[in-house]
Amino acid sequence: MSEQEWVQVSEAQIAVHWQEEELFHPPAEFIAQANMTDPSIYGRFSLENFPECYKEYADLLTWYQYWHTTLDTSDAPCWKWFVGGKINASYNCVDRHLAKHQNKASFVFVPEPEDEPHLVLTYRELWVRVNEVAALLRDFAGLQAGDRVTLHLPMVPELPIMMLACARLGVIHSVVFGGFSGRACGERIADSGSRVLVTMDGYNRKGELLDHKSKSDIAVEVAQEEGQTVDKVLVWRRYRDRHASAAPMVEGRDYFMDDLLKGYVGARVDPVPMPAEAPLFLMYTSGTTGKPKGCQHSTGGYLAYVAGTSKYVQDIHPEDVYWCMADIGWITGHSYIVYGPLALGASSVLYEGSPTCPDAGRPWRIAERLNVNIFHTAPTTIRMLRKAGPDEPAKHSYHFKHMTTVGEPIEPEVWRWYYYVVGKGKAAIVDTWWQTETGGFLCSTMPAIQAMKPGSAGPAVPGIHPVVYDEEGKEIEKGSGRAGNICIRNPWPGAFQTVWGDRGRYVETYYAKYCHDEESKDWRDWPYFTGDAAMQSQDGYYRILGRVDDVINVAGHRLGTKELESASLAVLEVAEAAVVPLADPIKGRVPDIYISLKPGYKPSQRIKAAVTQAIEVSIGKIARPQHVYIVPDMPKTRSGKIMRRVLADISNGRDIGDVTTLANPEIVREIQRMVQG
Ligand code: PRX
Q1: Does the Cβ of 128 fall within 6 Å of ligand 1?
Q2: pLDDT at residue 50 above 90?
Q3: Segments in 334-480 forming alpha helices (H)
Q4: Opening angle at CA 208, ends 205 and 211, nearest 5
Q5: What's the rounded mean pLDDT across residues 62-74?
Q6: Is residue 104 within 8 Å of residue 345, measured between CB atoms?
Q7: What ligand 1 atom has the least distance to the C-alpha of 546?
Q8: Which helix or strand (DSSP H or E) is residue 136 part of?
Q9: What is the pLDDT of residues 94-145, one digit of tens each?
């Protein structure tokens, strides 16, 4: 049985035993104020009305020039939306709100240290700062439309300011999650071809002021090794009066942003009207091979899709106080902290630090103080807050009308804690299933139209038409109790356009598996392969079971097992490495790593520590393995393939099944004794 089949079979078995959960109905108070209460939206967004239905989302935006073709499929499967249209994302997220809302908060920045004052950035102030930074990027850094810039920044207002300044010029931003290592950042700089890196000296995380600038030195070095020269590193300072980093500034390369900005006070830059299909940003994500792929998102289609879903699924009104606790360094932050909410003129909370710093009451104190009424987070955080302070929410008088969960499947019992304790039984919950590649939500209930089902992402959102295929491409009927590969039948405006610089990989990874005809220019021949296993209940709700490929979802973050394995192989003594997911009560999954050594080396704690360190250096602390096991040999098939399935069973204490067909079955017992005692 192949690795892929194994995942599906075992996930399908889980599904068979999965109990249907009781439905929860959205509160009347929520329905009374919701942006979308009309079920006919599903008819308007049916396949018969595709693709023109998406005009409804595009019309939420302000266009310099209207498009002539809603969907151009001539370069299938690279879809082009709203062709002929001209638009600027920065204008839509900032300028157009000034007439009515210039003094309204765009962001309220909450620093992690609780004694530090909040910073309120009005739309006017955001506009001023975006203009000044855009002038600097254009005139000092020499950037213009189509150039790429890497932003390696923590959760501070400077990050959305930089993104919007890039968007103003048509410069493509590539945000690298602040927790990623310098090496990981350098690889992404090289792949995107950025010659400008933007960073910050440091930031607060879990009570510590972390040095961040030093990572940029490694990043520049790694990029150089890969042939990409970075000629400017622009460094924001977290505090004006103290340095968060001891790393020296490199003369002629590194510049403090606050120094440079003195030369741009009052500067104004007209937003550049961009073709709708011009790339807005790249977001790197892990896949089945070692190299992360840059998902290229468009300007018009993406912005229309995140504006539409923010309005109808997130139910954001201009008078709401919205708080998404994700990091802007991931797609959730791009779509549902920055672009979607700002396109609607929302007021958002931007929190710098860890949800449990200094204690598990922190999020609820922030919610109470700022009167947050829409709350958005991941199951990992919910599990963590539930463990650390199950009674904390009750001590605070905030009122959430709406709550979101995203990034991983949520266990029904965790969902119920979220509903009853965090939401106090008064909030509508949406469980939103989607991906970096998809730009915005794929499945979720419409919060005022459908009932919620704990553990289920719900039906597809309007305009998305999923299908569950078996390995042969036969449709698995809803209610059959069988799981399969969930795919999307149709393109949608939020979908990424390609893998940056690698169209072949884009087609191969996402479309080749179920394509009906590779020559076809008809979108009906190109179902999108999500890489997730799912099953659909009789009522049409989808339960997402997890990845079918070599991707581990750790605390809602996607890690490619191949990335961890290749990092381990950089340790001199390591001959082979295999990474498997270990179930974890808080993080969902964590990586366990098995290594075998080259001849002549003896197992030691030092080697184990070196492997952990190699992973931290090459990816970041989020990828740190739970265990490093040094095994005498890997369990292998007769053709020499490492049987990760067997290692995963051992890690998780599951029955390992029949291993007699392996080349070395005796090794399995030995590893089992080592791991399980
Ligand atoms: O396996 C699915 C899981 O996260 C993957 C996408 O990860 P990423 O690109 O990092 O984007 C995360 C934020 C959208 C998916 O392939 N996933 C995401 N949301 C859910 C989920 N699994 C179950 N339920 C969800 N709501």
Answers
A1: no
A2: yes
A3: 340-343, 362-370, 379-388, 412-417
A4: 85
A5: 98
A6: yes
A7: 1
A8: helix 123-139
A9: 999 999 999 999 999 999 999 999 999 999 999 999 999 999 999 999 999 9
- The answer to whether the beta carbons of residues 405 and 394 sit under 8 Å apart is no
**Per residue, what are the HEC states of 447-472?**
CCCCCECCCCCECECCCCCEEEECCC
3-state secondary structure of 228: coil
Nearest protein Cα to ligand 1, atom 7: 435
* Closest residue by Cα to residue 440 from 416, 413, 415, 463: 463
Confidence of residue 17 (pLDDT cuts 50, 70, 90): low
Tokens 């993104």 sit on residue? 163
Alpha carbon nearest to ligand 1 atom 5, residue: 435
Burial of 462 (0-12, 13-18, 19+ CB in 10 A): buried
Residue among 532, 536, 547 to mutate when testing ligand 1 (max atoms within 8 A of CB): 532
Q: Please choose, from the candidates 311, 14, 297, the residue with its C-alpha nearest in 3D space to the C-alpha of residue 174.
A: 297
CA 407 / ligand 1 centre spacing (Å): 4
Query: What is the distance between the alpha carbons of residues 273 and 279, in angstroms, rounded to a whole number?
Result: 13
- Name the token pair of 324: 């998404």
CA distance 483 to 474: 12
193: its two tokens:
């071809």
CA–centroid distance, residue 113 to ligand 1 (Å)? 30
Q: Quick one: tokens of 26?
A: 């959205």
As a whole number of angstroms, the distance between CA 491 and CA 532 comes to: 17
- How does 87-113 read in b/e, with b if 16+ C-beta sit within 10 Å? bbbbbbbbbbbbeebeebbbbbbbbbe
Tell me the pLDDT tens digit for each residue of 627-675.
999 999 999 988 888 889 899 999 999 988 888 888 899 999 999 999 9
Ligand 1: residue whose CA is nearest its atom 13: 407
**Token output for 575:** 């001959």
CA distance 598 to 604: 13
Neighbours of 193 (CB within 10 A): 17
The protein residue with its alpha carbon nearest to ligand 1, atom 15, reads 435
Convert the pLDDT of each residue in 290-332 to its tens digit: 688 999 999 999 999 999 999 999 999 999 999 999 999 999 9
Nearest atom (ligand 1) to Cα of 557 = 10
Closest CA to 455 of 17, 82, 6: 17
Rg value, the chain, Cα: 24
Among 435, 551, 552, 554, the mutation site with the greatest number of ligand 1 atoms within 8 A of its Cβ is 435
- For residue 455, how far is its CA from the centre of ligand 1 (angstroms)? 13
pLDDT of residue 80: 98
What pLDDT does 560 receive? 87
Between the CA of 128 and the centroid of ligand 1 the distance, in Å, is 35
Residue with the smallest CA separation from ligand 1 atom 26 is 433
Shortest CA distance to 406 belongs to which of 426, 363, 376, 373?
376
Structure tokens at 387: 């463990």
pLDDT at 658: 85
| Cα–Cα distance, 399 to 389 (Å, whole number) | 18
Q: Is the pLDDT of residue 18 over 90?
A: no
558 pocket-lining for ligand 1 (C-beta < 6 Å):
yes
SS3 per-residue string spanning 47-88:
HHHCCHHHHHHHCCCCCCECCCEEEECCCCCCCEEEECCEEC
User: Does pTM surpass 0.90?
Assistant: yes
Which amino acid appears at position 34 of this protein? A
Dist CA 667 CA 662 (whole Å): 10
**553 CA to middle of ligand 1, Å?**
8
Residue 407 Cβ < 6 Å to ligand 1? yes
**SS3 category, 12:** helix
**Ligand 1 contact, 217 CB (< 6 A):** no
List the structure tokens of 552: 């581990």
